[in-house]
Amino acid sequence: MTQNDHQPRTDEAAPPTAGRPGLLDVRDLRVEFRTRDGIAQAVNGVDLAVTAGQTLAVLGESGSGKSVTAQAVMGILDSPPGFVTGGEILFQGRDLLKLGKEERRKVRGAKMAMIFQDALSSLNPVLSVGAQLGEMYTVHEGLSRKAARGKAVELMQRVGIPAAEARVSDYPHQFSGGMRQRIMIAMALALEPDLIIADEPTTALDVTVQAQVMDLLAELQREFTMGLILITHDLGVVADVADTIAVMYAGRIVETSPVHQLYKAPAHPYTRGLLDSIPRVDLKGQQLYAIKGLPPNLTAIPPGCPFNPRCPLARDICRTDLPPLYEVAPGRASACHFWKETLDGAR
Amino acid sequence: MERGEGAARKAGEPILEIRDLVKHYPLTQGIVFRKQIGAVKAVDGVSFDLHKGETLGIVGESGCGKSTVAKMLVGLEQPTSGQILYQGEDITRLSGRALKAVRRNIQMVFQDPYTSLNPRMTVGDIVGEPYEIHPEVAPKGERRKKVQDLLDVVGLNPEYINRYPHQFSGGQRQRIGIARGLALRPEIIVADEPVSALDVSVQAQVVNLLEQLQDEFDLSYVFIAHDLSVVRHISDRVAVMYLGRLAEIGTDAQIYEHPTHPYTQALLSAVPVPDPEARDRRGRILLAGDVPSPADPPSGCRFRTRCWKAQALCAEVVPPLEVPERFRDSEGPERHDSACHFAAERDAVGSEQDERGGCPA
Amino acid sequence: MPESYVPKEAITHGDGGTAALAIGEAESLERPPGAGPPSAPPTGKPRGLWSDAWHDLRRNPVFVISGLVIIFLAIIAIWPQLIATGNPYRADLAKAQAGAEPGHPFGFDTQGRDVYTRVVYGARASITVGTCATAGAALLGSLLGALAGFYGGWGDNLLSRTADIFFGIPVILGGLVFLSVITSSTVWPVVGFIVLLGWPQVARIARGSVVTAKQNDYVQAARALGAGNRRMLLRHIAPNAIAPVIVVATIALGTYIALEATLSYLGAGLKPPTVSWGIDISAASTYIRNAPHMLLWPAGALSITVLAFIMLGDAVRDALDPKLR
After folding, report:
1. Among the listed ranges A95-104, A270-279, B57-66, C60-69, which one has the minimum average pLDDT value?
2. Chain B, nearest residue to C15 by Cα
3. Strand locations in B219-324 (E)
4. In whole numbers, what is the pLDDT of chain C averaged over residues?
5. More confident position, B354 or B314
6. Whether the predicted pLDDT of C288 surpasses 90
7. Is the pLDDT of residue A300 over 80?
8. Which of B76, B117, B134 has the CB atom closest to C218's CB atom?
9. Do the Cβ atoms of B245 and B302 come closer than 8 Å?
10. Is A114 exposed, middle or buried (0-12, 13-18, 19+ CB in 10 A)?
11. Which of B167, B211, B229, B275 to mutate to test the interface with A (most CBs of A within 10 A)?
């Protein structure tokens, strides 16, 4: 089994933004889920780095470990069955995994905040949105209820909710999906965090609303120079807003790259497969390119490169040796033994 | 009603003609004495044709009524009014044996492969159930063989016949659902968001399968989805729905390259393009506000409350779905049905020279 | 939290050779199904709800112990002679209220009857009432509940309101009134009364679970195929809606046994010469200071029986409740 922890890692494997002072630096993060069917290795040595004002998109399918990574960073992993089994999460220089529960809780919300996919189930249905927004201030900053309410209205205006003054006492179900997501964003923003993690923030929304929400998020990020981690499976959304992309597969980062270069010339066959399977106008009437097979079972990740059973370039070495993250170019890395061929367009 | 030339080009006879289809769900009050206080106008006068061998894509946002249309087509919902003509016969008026016979020819593929297969039945029972309901299609002795053939056709190992749905992944389950839909050799398949619950890397497999089956069995598809690029890939014609009505209908090139309805233009401009280079070049139309409630839709044109072109006329007169007057003499692709009083091409949406296309939000 | 499904995904896909079913377009067709890839997890075959539940239950000590107790009770209810050779009616007034002695481990009651023999014979009444009442309430309740849930409309309304009325009847008071007018020494009036009061509870559960199951896409899929109501109800809805009914029935069984004893204690349930724990408890209660053994043994037997059924129901619920998985 080469998914062993002690694969030699090349030094070039350092995350692309490691040069700058990091806001968040995740190093060799490992998470497993202990289930009745065995141990699912959800995250297997992930390195991520985000600086202030930067947008990092973590791209992957279900089971790729992208959301689990986010939950581990936020400290909201369901445990059991999930356990962080290794690595460091350095946030503003401190390793979050070494903090106590109470300290961790203080960081969450005040310094880093999360936006979920399903705003309706993330908001408390029996409290008015004003009360929920205001709570952030009464609890964390000790404001009076009246002052907190005023702040809540301000926030709602800031995220573009029309007639905020009148709607502050409304309950979550009285808002549309897009408006609810705005309220979620407002809650995340309330204490002006340094890092926002958005987990599929627009997946549940219609395209026209999706565009509004993404624009809002990008605008607020610029305004507050926050770091933003965008967790998504949507290559379109990523292309629109991300600075850097980390592509995840079977709990590992298989490629990380500045956004323009990745779309121009992917350096990992999985990324290439994803890009190629997007329907394109000029290929109408032809078969879509499809990555064969299925994502691996996390309780039994294939030895060698986890993508090898589905990879068109796979050779013997791929079935035995786990590829490290090779540096492809400054700020670019690919976990493929044959990244050169891939970069040159081989399929 | 006159259709664009594009439709005629692709295929022959209309196999399905939908006329003024309406579905209102009554809103009631009171427990013992129910009183109707209104209606959710889920579908409010939809007409289109489906031709033999073609794929008609229906796009629209959630709540626009596209799924309700699908349910009415396969008989899961009874229309409030309107006609569904299958080979010239109105199937909304049929019942009993005649209805059952017609239903055989219009089958459905569901969105969620996790909930659309009965977890207590084996794959063989699921795919073979159509034969139990319509025993005349296949004699008992042949059914097992037929089921195995179907599994083979959709790319599943026929030996998996005794397995249960939970032993399969999402993509494979969707194949099982497709096999069930094919069992009765229907002429029409209504697919309601068939790939949107699937992983990106598996979606392409299923789209390819659907296309391949269409050629093999000469199927006509009504393909409903919110993913505009998938719809474009698979469809010959595309209908755009908004709040219970069709906004625009035409060939894929007409709709995607030359949309004349403002809603279609906004919808297309909002689709994220997987190309970071296009980030700054896109004239995105940001629509103001949300879709109004179908229980209380705006008068006149349904889209007027979010439309930047709206004028007094839009509130008074419902724009008919027809070739707009200004394009009637044209021969170009802008000549197709569009339900807008002020239908006009946006200056080449999404194309290179688009600098001034941005509209006030 | 929407994304916690990631690990669950791993679980669903994990149970059994999902990877073995890998399609890869053409390649899967060549691969024999038995030849799982090396990635097949060691935990073996994938399971359905029932076999999964069974798998859980067998490892649950609560289930095993309560199951064994119930099997034992069932056996002595059918063949009390197996462990009690005496006659429950044989009275020896000389031994009235006497304590334990060799051959009579539980002592004697007021009329000088052997308490041990009576406790053993009393199991039959309790188990009979419990099982018959549960069977009746479960059948009637699930049938009415399922039909109401499936068809909806005025029938559903009628059922719900009727059930509300029955819920409003105070059980003990109702039992005293209803059963005092019946002069039968068999168990059937008591069974009938419990069924009458018990079915609405089952009906409510059955209705809810049918309504939920009805909305599943696979029921819609069957309807789209042209399936009739009978097929949808029997083939698609019932098998997916029955688990909660089973759970509620198992737990109800214990409470019905307790209810029978209560009614018998109050003189409204079973009547002598039927041998019943409730009757014996009632008879012994006045002598609790002088001869507590007369009360403690039947009361203990009753408690163990009720507890066994309730624990069994609890274990079954835990095993069948998918939310806890």
Report:
1. A95-104
2. B167
3. 220-224, 237-242, 245-251
4. 76
5. B314
6. no
7. yes
8. B117
9. yes
10. buried
11. B275
pLDDT at residue C49 in the model: 64
Distant-in-sequence, close-in-space partners of B238: CB < 8 Å, separation ≥ 6:
B56, B57, B58, B59, B231, B232, B249, B250, B251, B252, B255, B256
Q: Is 90 exceeded by the pLDDT of residue B49?
A: yes
Q: What is d(CA A224, CA A219) in angstroms, rounded to the nearest whole number?
A: 9
Q: In chain B, which among 1-30 make CB contacts under 8 A with chain C?
A: none
CB–CB contact C3 A121 (8 Å):
no
The residue of chain A nearest to residue C18, with distances taken between CA atoms, is A297
Taken in order of first residue, the domains within chain A and their CATH numbers are 11-111+194-343 (3.40.50.300), 121-192 (no CATH)
Higher-confidence residue of C211 and B279: namely C211
* A102 Cα to chain B: minimum distance (Å): 38
pLDDT band per the 50, 70, 90 thresholds, residue C178: confident
- Total CB pairs under 8 A between chain A and C: 109
Residue pair A192/A158 in contact (Cβ under 8 Å)? The answer is: no
CB < 8 Å to B110, chain C: 217, 220-221
Closest C-alpha among B236, B181, B186, B249 to residue B209: B181
Task: Give residue-wise pLDDT tens across range A128-174.
Answer: 888 888 888 887 777 888 888 888 888 888 888 888 888 888 888 88
CB within 8 Å: A301 and C2: no
The percent of residues in chain C predicted with pLDDT above 70, rounded, is 83
Q: Please give the average per-residue pLDDT across A252-266, as a whole number.
A: 90
How near does any CA of chain B get to the CA of C23, in Å? 7
Subunits close to C (at least 3 CB pairs below 8 A): A, B
The yes-or-no verdict on residue C3 having pLDDT over 90 is no
Q: Which domain holds residue C21?
A: 1-46
- What's the CATH number where C88 sits? 1.10.3720.10
In terms of domains, do C128 and C181 share one? yes
Q: Which amino acid is at B266?
A: A
pLDDT at B32: 63
Instruction: Residue A65: list chain B partners with CB under 8 A.
Output: none
For chain B, how big is the Rg over CA atoms in Å? 22
**Together in a domain, C289 and C250:** yes
Q: Which chains touch A (3 or more CB pairs under 8 A)?
A: B, C
C84 shares its domain with C31: no
Domains belonging to chain B, first-starting first, are 5-105+186-338 (3.40.50.300)
Q: Is A120 on the interface with C (CB under 8 A)?
A: no
Per the prediction, chain B carries an average pLDDT of 84
**Distance between CA A97 and CA A30 in Å, rounded?**
12
Per the CB < 8 Å rule, is B271 touching A288?
A: no
pTM of the model: 0.77
Residue B95 Cα, gap to closest chain A Cα (Å):
37
* CA nearest to B186 within chain C: C225
Distance from CA of C257 to the nearest CA of B (A): 33
What is residue B64's DSSP assignment?
S
Distance from CA of A122 to the nearest CA of C (A): 7
Looking up tokens 């006497």, which residue turns up? C98
| Contact at CB, B272 and A284, closer than 8 angstroms | no
Rounded to the nearest angstrom, the minimum Cα separation between C241 and chain B is 11
Cα nearest neighbour of C231 on chain B = B133
| Angle formed at CA C5 by CA A121 and CA A28, multiple of 5 degrees | 115
Instruction: State pLDDT tens for residues A177-232.
Output: 778 888 888 888 888 888 889 888 887 777 878 887 888 888 888 888 889 999 98
What ipTM is given for this predicted complex?
Answer: 0.77
SS3 A256: strand
Lowest mean pLDDT among A48-62, A94-108, B110-124: A94-108
Structurally, chain C folds into a number of domains equal to 2
Three-state DSSP state, B16: strand
